[in-house]
Amino acid sequence: MLLCMSHLPWDLVLQRPQHLLSRAARDWRVVYVEEPRFEPPGPDLPRLERREVLEGVEVATPFLPYWDGVPGSVERMQRPLLDGLIAEAGQPDILWYYTPLAQAVAGHLSPRLTVYDCMDELSAFRGASPQLLMEERRLMRRADVVFTGGQSLYEAKRNVRADVHCFPSSIDQHHFAQARTGGIAEPSELRDLPHPRIGWFGVVDERLDLELLAACAQRRPDWSFIMIGPVVKIAASELPRLPNLHWLGGRPYAELPAHLAHWDAGFMPFAINEATRFISPTKTPEYLAAGVPVVSTPITDVIRPWGETGLVEIAGTAEAAVLALEHVMSRPREAWLERVDQQLSHISWDRSWANMQALIRASGSDRAGARVQRA
Question: Which CATH architecture has domain 2-170+349-374?
Fold first, then answer.
């Protein structure tokens, strides 16, 4: 069994954990434990609800009574729930962490191997626990294998541990290339929106520069700015409201190529702050695989390699972003698409998982050898 302790709801948006763990399910039974949800106190709390979301992948969600404010009480309520799951399923072959804070719940388990897949600098996010950095250092010492979700994170984390492995955002190219085929039905919510259409999909949170987005929309009232994704950790009242700025909410992963097929450009208006310092947006190669030209604010892991190779335009102000969008929408696409496809040919989630799995298996063999030597 591969037991994953995550800070992300499985159904929020399909991103790195789902891509990797759905592939892991070819070899292991995967149990994905979400962070807890809270309800008014009742006789059925705390409880653990389990559901199968894919063949070989089960999601376990702890439901707890509202937090009483006592430090450590959330973890104390969750541990018996996890112990009940382990009593039924057995100790995990692999204990896979996305959040270091989950050590307080799962740190007493006895897996054959511990993996930390560091996909974000969680300590920089809004509302982050002050314990995160300390817990992460502890996890990086105890983990058998450590991965990072981008080059910037790799460069930061290898100062803590030398044998960190970098696996940047990858791509399910076949899925998004559907947008290039032509004839794909236009989503109903786009039909009344005039071109050019400038699109975004992803989580809407503190990592977006809402002022920049609004300024771009104000500069070009004849453009339709289309924003797809759930709003998380910020209030809906914080979202700018303009006649040409359209907040569509979340859409299933399966529907994204249909949206991309009817965009004229993709826009990634990330804020430049601590929360975005180390991000490696998965949407970058996804937009490109769909054949959609992209403009992004200067995020390091977008600049390298996408900006430096001229595949994505980089703009730091609203004026520059509008000019860059005008440029990418007007330039011929054939030569650009050839270079895009050449770059994308080197990456895929299948390839990333195969390389990760090889490192996991090698680490497991090393541990087995060490046990024999000690014996």
Answer: 3-Layer(aba) Sandwich (3.40)
